[in-house]
Amino acid sequence: MSDYPPTGLPASIKALPEWIQLGCGDAEYNCAEKEATFIAGNMPAKLPDLSNHTSFFADTMRANPELFEKLKSKTTKLGVNIGHCIKTGVDNKGHPMIKTVGAVAGDEESYELFKEFFDPVISARHNGYAPDAKHPTDMNPANLSTTPIDPTGKYVLTTRCRTGRSVRGTRLPPCSSFEERRELERVIVKALLNLEGDLKGDYFPLHGSQSYAAKPTGMTEEKEESLRKNGNLFQEPDSTLLLSSGCGRHWPDARGIYHNEAENFFVWVNEEDQMRIVSMQKGASVVEIFKRFAAATEGIQKVLKQEGYDFMHNEHLGWVLTCPSNLGTGLRAGAMVQVPKFSARSDFKQVLAKMGLQARGTAGVDSASTGGTWDISNADRLGKSETQLVNIFIEGVAQIIRWEQALEAGTDIEAEVAKAALPAKF
Hints:
Blueprint: H1 11-14, H2 18-21, H3 56-63, H4 67-71, H5 82-91, H6 110-113, H7 115-125, E1 156-165, H8 178-192, E2 201-205, H9 221-229, H10 240-245, E3 256-260, E4 265-269, E5 275-282, H11 286-306, E6 313-314, E7 318-319, E8 332-338, H12 340-343, H13 348-354, E9 357-360, E10 373-378, H14 386-408, H15 414-418
Antiparallel strand pairs: 1-5, 1-8, 2-3, 3-4, 4-5, 6-7, 8-10, 9-10
Helix pairs in contact: 3-7, 8-11
Pfam families: ATP-gua_Ptrans, ATP-gua_PtransN
Protein name: creatine kinase
Organism: Oikopleura dioica
């Protein structure tokens, strides 16, 4: 099987540039062209120079120079060392204006065994989240705000909720073995195919994947292209951040997407997280979306338990995911909102930040807006529950739309905007 993982690469990957191919085989990513040569399996005695690196990883290591030597001899029960966790941060210097985390977890135990490293990274990324803090979890739709976001239906184009889940007792995607990833696909897909009602659907492995007996060559290229065009499917890893993290190994084996018949509920399998769960629809019906989302996670967990598994979760970190930025709820409640007048303000993003929100352009992180349309979502993940974050999103977007309407009517909103803050009750 020299043309298929784990011993080889399929034709679809061989058609890509060599620097991507190097991250899709069985070995750790080692690419001199991209200066990505730190190897967890053969770590140096001392950490490479990080003076030109911009990331929460680099900040933490510069503040604690002895940390690498202190942790490098430790290994989790599943075989993860600190090198697996920090390779992506060492290999990628980052951007001075866009601070990434620069670290991933290789398994659930990583966050505990390497807590002297992860705790300060998590605190820096999540606004001072303390090492002994408790994270609340609340998936009860009855606790959602009843405030209508967009009563006119004029401003919100689509709304979505998304989160991740991981399966306890397994390694996370950066360190998964070929066989382990296939077992994860098996048990996750079994759970998904048990979903009923409006969640009922089918699983489609990536084109070329040979891991799923029901579709031995994966989905068709046409199906894959259609899903990607609509923004509903991930593509092969095409950044050194992902390749260095280890998430590209054995591509495209045991990766795919489940969707329901209405195509408003999706689960990505074995990409950056073992599961990325997305519920979406046109308009502003975030309560409906959240109900679908909560029912799905409950249904998946039920079958996992029957198979002897469960989700990774603890009272300190909430739902355990690959990137520390997604710990806690891992939840992003977002809407594509047309607010050309309000978003034209020079302090638009700063006002949103005060309200616990963030804005992305129409093409994702750090992209520009198109015609005053922005993807507005909750900024936090950790320290507040799912329903709290969705309520911050509901109240905040409803307020922004009211301000947009006031501007359309020629009303001055400066006094109100000056008082912008996180809703007191959340």
